[in-house]
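User: I'll paste a sequence; please echo it back and then give the predicted structure.

Assistant: Echoing your sequence first, then the prediction.
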Amino acid sequence: MALDPDIAARLKRDANGLFAAVAQERGTGQVLMVAWMDDEALARTLATRRGTYYSRSRGEYWVKGETSGHTQYVYSVRLDCDGDTVLLEVDQVGAACHTGDHTCFDADELLAPE
């Protein structure tokens, strides 16, 4: 699956060809998770509307929820101004975090509101 050349030209990738992908819940605006994508993962996500990422540790693609059942329907995808991060607005079914939490950002609050 090939990424549209116009989109590919706008992306800024790291030395491994990867860029950050932030998944945000559509209904609440809550940031659910951050993962990595490459051109292929983004192309798959755009074609299927299923959050598809690249695992740096396993060296393979993974579709959110494929094994856990905690799926992501991708409502929209936006590229940031620098071209090095995409924002996926998703409808999350079940937990987004591999720990079973709804979001990966539930664990450690480093600075609380005053």
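The longest helix spans residues 39-48. The helical segments are 5-10, 39-48.
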